[in-house]
Amino acid sequence: MDKKEKGQTQFDFHAFGLKGKAVLFCLFSIVLMFFDHRTDYLRLPKYYLEEIIHPLSLIAESPAKALNTFRDWYTEKEKLLQRIETLEEKELYLAYETQQMAALTAENRRLRLLLQSSSKLEHTTIIAELINISSDPYRHIVLLNQGANQGVKENFPVLNNLGIVGQTVSVSPSSSKVILLTDPHHSLPIEINRNGIRGIANGNGKLNEIEITNIAFDDDVKVGDLLVTSGLDERFPQGYPVAIVKSITLDSSGYFAKIIATPTAKLDRIREVLILTNGDNQDVD
């Protein structure tokens, strides 16, 4: 048999067309399914084939899994960022409410102390709130939210639960100005609570101290003595706390004492005050 005849007897797969190849693969698949369903001949090949294909399937699925993992991470991150932002807003709001509550609590405490002080006074009082402070650094004057419409007049004594604050100097229908006892233009007759020695308390322009004059250096004055109103000016009732003696030195005359005292009313912290409504209408000292 020559070479041409021998080549024609061999199976030529490439001679089949596309449809022929499809039909051939279908027949081959049917045969494999028949043997797989009816016999156990393909069990072992299937076992090893699955072992080979499994890593390939993992590799094929890894991009999709990585994409899903990244999508889930990004989505979770966005949710966490939104939750953090929401919690920060809630924290800010709660902090604001807490500050408001603290301010209201402090205000209620001060008002209770004022009302307790008012109940112990023998005079009619008006509760007022500080609403402004003078911008002049050399004057200690504050503005209150009570005025002539509420019965306030000039030269009414002003105090809080700790002691004397000052006195009214001008009044409008709905507000009034108060000169503090530390103002350089303010003077107040006082006496030492321990022994009754009298003097004059003068403002020196410093909010946390006043100067006491007209007391001899050899008089019985001690650091820590309580100074109270003497009532001799017929404006401030007698016996109200004014200041605590801080230091005692000899003045330039060599006879009188130079006494520095700290106001008991803590003038740098006042918010609410009491106005005594039965003061006399006199000029400020």
Automatic annotation (TrEMBL):
Record domain Rod shape-determining protein MreC beta-barrel core: where: 131-276
Keywords: Cell shape, Membrane, Transmembrane, Transmembrane helix
Transmembrane segments: 16-35
Pfam families from the UniProt entry: MreC
Family: Belongs to the MreC family.
NCBIfam families to which the protein is assigned, alphabetical: mreC
PANTHER family linked to this entry: CELL SHAPE-DETERMINING PROTEIN MREC
Role noted for this protein: Involved in formation and maintenance of cell shape.
Protein known as: Cell shape-determining protein MreC
